[in-house]
Amino acid sequence: MNPILRVAGLSVRLGGSHILQGVTFDVAPAGVTALLGRNGAGKTTTLRAILGEVPARGTVEYDGRAVLGRATHRLVRDGLAYVPEDRCVFAGLTVAENLRLAERVPDPDYALVHELFPELKARAAQRAGTLSGGQQQMVAIARVLLNPNRLLLVDEPTKGLAPAVVSAVATVLGRVAARVPVLLVEQNLAVVRKLADDAVVIEAGRVAWRGPADELLGDNETTRSLLGVGRH
Amino acid sequence: MKRFVPPALLLLAAVAPFSTLAVPGLFEGPLNSPGTLQLLAVCLVFGALALGYDLLFGRAGLLSFGHALYIAAGAYGVDILVSHYGWSLWAAAPVAVLGAATLAALLGSVALRTSGIAFSMVTLAFAQVGFILVNRDPGGLTGGEEGLPMVTAGLPSALVGVTNTVNLYWLALAVLVVIVLVVHTIDRAPLGRTLIGLRDDERRIAVVGLSPYRVKLLAFVVAGALAALGGVVHALVVGGASPHVASSDLTLALIVMAVLGGAGTRWGALAGGLLYAYLDQRLARLGGDLPGPLSEPLFLLGTLFILAVYFVPGGLAGLRTRWEPLRRAVRRRQVADSPT
Amino acid sequence: MSTVILLTLTGLGLAALYFLIASGLSLVFGLAGVLNFAHGLFLSAGAYATWWAAPHVGLPLAVVLGIVAAAATGALVELVLIRPLYARHTEQVLVTVGLSLAGVALLQSVWGADARVFLRPAWASQVTGILGANVPDDRFLLIGAAVLVLVALLAFLRWTRYGLIIRAGVENRAMVRALGIDVRNAFTLVFAIGGALAGLAGILGGMYFTSISPGQGASLLIFAFIVVVIGGLGSITGSAVAAAGVGLLQQFVNYYGTAGAGDVSVVVLLAAVLLLRPAGVAGKAVTA
């Protein structure tokens, strides 16, 4: 099966520092590919470069087409959806407005959203800024689920959430990944273990490890040296 | 070689008034005629003002829209002290400059609580108060919309009268040199590097442990003092102060000068100021002969400025660096073509 | 008492002009991040278009033409001058500075530097007695127009798709793009709306002052800037509240204090707001 996304030699310079220095990896057309690495390794920058939010060099092929330099909104309309770090819900808009803004098709899938997040239906008129972190994350994920997508880029969906909420979010992501491939940036290795099929580790702007997620997480030594964490 | 160019140009500028050379087209009279010297003196003053402004704009990255306030503080300060209170110029000028610096410290401490575009708006608002005040003629001090002509009794006789225009020219040149020295000294000092650091990335400087607020305030006060110094000379050269020196149009013109010349570069703003002031005065005189909007100097300068922002991002100073690769390419071609 | 009523209504009339200019500035800044010095040019475009057309087509149609001309000027400036400098905010400000200089000069060369007499509806020259005060009717014209615009703007922002995009874009442009929305169309739209409102302000200002001049836009613009900063960048209700505060303060201080004190007090108010609430009354961060 051809990968849904191929990244080759991706380089980003921002304000004089070389943040990405030739990142190369593929994302399989099904399941979850985890993008791992320490803080500041360049994971978020990789996602933003793929989306065209930061100027980058190299090659990014989405569904067989080179996309670097294309406008972000066009990529998203082509089914490359993005759940950013820190949720980025619109705090001054209501939950319903946040969702309405995200509609890209005539028949948005509210049935799925309300099945996964019944809470959002009850809170439709509430301002998103007054939601809890977990609820905001639900809005952020719901926004992309309204539309048919062919690849999700999800950046640290469990960051700063309470343990119970983390597992709820992970369950939802698992259900989503059954239909759409996901490129997931995640620090919580328990979540990675549960969801990820493949793993890519970035270190100082370069890919330091690629392979099956089980293999990486099964090897405590490698995990510790690459990610600075491991099972105790 | 390059380092001798500025002193050579300075020497040339200093001896220019001894020349009776006539440059038809560029100037109306010979170089040493009072009219030409006056025009050149105004150019020098604006070169100095633009460079002083670039300390804020190009170096510290502070887009102040209220610089005219400090120029006006210098011009009106010295004019009021000399014309109304009969002070001598040598007493009035330092008081005016110090007063402007104090004003800059006061207002800067408020304005610098904001950043980015809000800072621009706040400085603009403060300067607008100055403009309104000088127009309202409080206590008959500023002469209102007519402005306040300088009473010459308090001035040294060497600066009075058409025949002494050359001395005003030299005075303007001297002040220009002073401002160049101050700005270039700051460029080389730790303060200058900190300012540029602030412009590029404020967080980085905060990490180093300096207070960005204090550094910016210091730059704001120094720039205010330099503006007032320029304002003093402007009042002397044109024989008084008028509301135009307090108007936001003047600040906008300074921005145009800095950008035209190349903001943040060593000589860019100075060159831009000279060029702008020259064009402004010459176009105003030629204006009547040109058709339609071309008769308005500001139409031409504004259009020129917009084109410069698009097509010459580095200003005049940027042109040189753009030429450099081309020249090198040509030289390489010549080397390659020559038989070996 | 009658003086207070007259001053209040005059202050609110002035506030109406400030609001019409400031709301457009605020939207343009909030969404597109552009501090628009050419906004005064939009105002003049509306005023001069109406002044020029009124003798030919009558005042009501001329007003419509003026607003359309100002909106077109705004959209054109965004498309031709601002858009190519995408995300380079300082350059964008510089271009609007150049445009404001060149624009005023262009108006001067075409229609002269002197003020031109501006037509107004006959009823606007009459007075209405309210609690003993003889209030000129042009105040009601200004206040009524501003209230209508405020209600219409809020409804537009609240109930339409583009309103939703604009509100979201003011919060986070990049995220709007990441939802697959071409936010640049919204930029053009806010420039057109800002232009139309500024044009309306120019026309109403012409009726109120009974004259227009090339520099009029610039002098009103500075108070509009102050209103925008006090009200919070990107907030329409903030602009409305701040405009009313600024207009009233200016009128009352000018009447009870010395000449010019009202203008100074407005700037003192600005300084006080910045010291106490650096985020402006609407609470949105006043940084770029």
UniProtKB/TrEMBL annotation, chain A:
SMART domains: AAA
Domain ABC transporter per the UniProt entry, residue ranges: 5-229
Domain of life (superkingdom): Bacteria
GO molecular function, one term: ATP binding
PROSITE patterns per record: ABC_TRANSPORTER_1, ABC_TRANSPORTER_2
GO term, biological process aspect, one: L-amino acid transport
Entries under Pfam families matching the protein: ABC_tran
UniProt keyword terms in alphabetical order: Amino-acid transport, ATP-binding, Nucleotide-binding, Transport
Stored PANTHER family: HIGH-AFFINITY BRANCHED-CHAIN AMINO ACID TRANSPORT ATP-BINDING PROTEIN LIVF
Family in the record: Belongs to the ABC transporter superfamily.
Protein name: ABC transporter ATP-binding protein
Automatic annotation (TrEMBL), chain B:
Places the protein is found: Cell membrane
Lineage of origin: Bacteria, Bacillati, Actinomycetota, Actinomycetes, Micromonosporales
Organism: Actinoplanes cyaneus
Record bears the keyword Membrane: yes
Major localization listed first in the record, in broad terms: membrane
Domain of life according to the entry: Bacteria
Name of the featured protein: Branched-chain amino acid ABC transporter permease
Gene Ontology MF term list: branched-chain amino acid transmembrane transporter activity
Cross-referenced PANTHER family: ABC TRANSPORTER ATP-BINDING PROTEIN, HIGH-AFFINITY BRANCHED-CHAIN AMINO ACID TRANSPORT SYSTEM PERMEASE
From TrEMBL, chain C:
Statement: the UniProt record of this protein carries the keyword Transport: yes
Annotated GO biological process: amino acid transport
Subcellular location: Cell membrane
Highest taxon above the source species: Bacteria
Primary localisation category: membrane
TM region(s), chain numbering: 12-37, 57-81, 93-111, 140-157, 186-209, 221-248, 255-276
Matching Pfam families: BPD_transp_2 (PF02653)
Single Gene Ontology MF annotation: transmembrane transporter activity
Gene Ontology cellular component list: plasma membrane
Membrane topology: Multi-pass membrane protein
Keywords of the record: Amino-acid transport, Cell membrane, Membrane, Transmembrane, Transmembrane helix, Transport
PANTHER family given in the database record: ABC TRANSPORTER ATP-BINDING PROTEIN, BRANCHED-CHAIN AMINO ACID TRANSPORT SYSTEM PERMEASE PROTEIN LIVH
Family note: Belongs to the binding-protein-dependent transport system permease family. LivHM subfamily.
Name under which the protein is recorded: Branched-chain amino acid ABC transporter permease
